[in-house]
Every structure is written in structure tokens, then in C-alpha cells.
Amino acid sequence: MRRKLTKYAVPLLFMMMMILLSGCDTSMMVLDPKGPVGADQRDLIVISTVLCLIVLVPVLILTAWIVWRYRDKPNNKAAYMPVWSHNTKAEVIWWAIPIIIIGALAVVTVKYTYALEPSKPLKSDKEPLVIQATSLDWKWLFTYPEQGIATVNYIEIPEDRPIRFQLTSDAPMNSFWIPQLGGQMYTMSGMDMTLNLQADEPGVYFGSGANFSGPQFADMRFEVKATSDADFDQWVNEVKSKGSELTLEGYEKLAEPSSSDRQYFSSFPEGLHEKIVNKYVVGKGHHHGGSEESK
């Protein structure tokens, strides 16, 4: 009975794993990047996976072969060598290859870690667009200090232009993530974190909070729309003309724990982001790669 369970357990577990992974849309988004940061992260994932498979695949194949070749069965003709204990050539091979691969993996990881420093400005001829992102219970507030507008659960950005996100939280810690553009980065109370991203082409991209933060954390999803410069300017003008004003009282109401539909605000209180950052700390808030103006 035990042998039968073992025989079918591995294939069954493998099938269950494939079914679960097939439902992870975000895993496919990560492998379909639409920006330079996402592309570098995809490359790191692929390179690391290939290097690991160089060791993993032969080990799995040899394990399966050994189990099959030397299984217990009547009239087994396999050679039996109870005194065999050492083979220099074999030990050099199975120790040298993993050491080389680990070394290569370390070099690749260090290179991409420095290249993908979140606060490092992206190379571009265009000035970055600043968007201040605040995680709330259970919604996202995005303020555009240069344009003077704000949105809830929606971001619109110009394509092929660096976006400098300034991230903080007025609620439990969360994680800001746009899988096809890059990320994740934590949002924390009293912290002003910087994340530089860019969309290389027009499109609508999925964004979400990637950290459990309460019963309605699944509602912390937002849409990111990349458009041309002209369409972005037109959208800003529409928000200014049609959106409502976000006051301090309105913000306090918005920050109360609840999910929210998409909202647009034609204006917001000056220095709102800085007030949120400094709300829970004595003195100045902590900054990671933030601009001097935000400090």
C-alpha cells in the first residue's frame, strides 16, 4: 500500500503545482515586461533559473534513474559493490560544477542588484514625472505634485518617460507592485521611499498591494495607463476641470478603513505627502533616495 501511495504521490503533487501556477497571472506578467526595470528583473529571473536548472535537472534525472535501476525486485541482476566508496573523478565533477554555478550566480546577482537599485534614476533625456503613492486601508492614493491633481486606485503616465514614485503609508505596511514595470517596494509609515520605473510603450498595466494588510487587502488594486505625452496632458486637464477638490477633511475621511472605487481630484492640500510621512514620527521622516525638496 505504501509503495502505491509513493508511486502516485509525486505525479499528483506535480500536477497540483502546475494547476496552481497556471492561475498566477502575475507570474506571467513578470515574464512579459514593458519597461527597462521589468526587463532587467525578468533577465535576472531567467538567468538564475537556467543556472539552477543546470544542477537541478541532472540531479532529478539521476535520482529517478537510480531509484528505478536499483529498485528492489525479484531476480535483480544489477551489480552489487558494497566496498565501493570513492571516485575522485566523480567527486570533482559533482563538487566543481555547483561551485562554478554558485560563483556565476553570485556575480550575476550582485551586478543586477546594483543596477536595479530602486532609487537610482533611469537613463533618459526626459525629466522624471513625480507621483506620490500612499497606501491606505484599503485603497491607494496617488498625488501628482507637479500637476496638482490626485487619484484613487488609478495612475496615468506618459510612455517612454521615467516615473519617480515617492512611496509612503498612512496605514499598515504594504507593498507597491506593478509587475510589468517592476517592483515591489514596501510602503511604511514615517518612510519616504523612492522607486523609479518606466513604461516603454502605451498600454494598461495591473498594479496592486502585494502585502497582507487586513480583511479587504484584495481590494488594493489599481490600474496604470501609459499614454502619449499629448494624451497625458489632456487627461490632466480633464481631471482639473471635472474632478472634485480633496481637502484635509476629505483626506481624513478617505483614510478611514474601507475599500474605494476609482476617484479623481482636481487639487489636494499643499504638502500632503510630507504631512503623511511625518505623521507618526517625532521630527523628520526617514527618506530612501528621496529628493531634497521632499526632505
TrEMBL record:
Keyword field: Cell membrane, Electron transport, Lipoprotein, Membrane, Oxidoreductase, Palmitate, Respiratory chain, Signal, Transmembrane, Transmembrane helix, Transport
Domain annotation Cytochrome oxidase subunit II transmembrane region profile: ranges: 22-120
GO biological process: ATP synthesis coupled electron transport
SUPFAM superfamilies (alphabetical): Cupredoxins (SSF49503), Cytochrome c oxidase subunit II-like, transmembrane region (SSF81464)
Subcellular location as annotated: Cell membrane
InterPro entries xrefs: CcO_II, CcO_II-like_C, COX_ARM, Cupredoxin, CuRO_UO_II, Cyt_c_oxidase_su2_TM_dom, Cyt_c_oxidase_su2_TM_sf, Cyt_o_ubiquinol_oxidase_su2
Main localization, broad class: membrane
Residues in Cytochrome oxidase subunit II copper A binding domain copies: 126-238
Any single GO CC term annotated in Swiss-Prot or TrEMBL for this entry: plasma membrane
Topological category with respect to the lipid bilayer: Multi-pass membrane protein
Physiological role: Catalyzes quinol oxidation with the concomitant reduction of oxygen to water. Subunit II transfers the electrons from a quinol to the binuclear center of the catalytic subunit I.
Similarity comment text for this entry: Belongs to the cytochrome c oxidase subunit 2 family.
Protein name per the record: Quinol oxidase subunit 2
Organism: Paenibacillus curdlanolyticus YK9
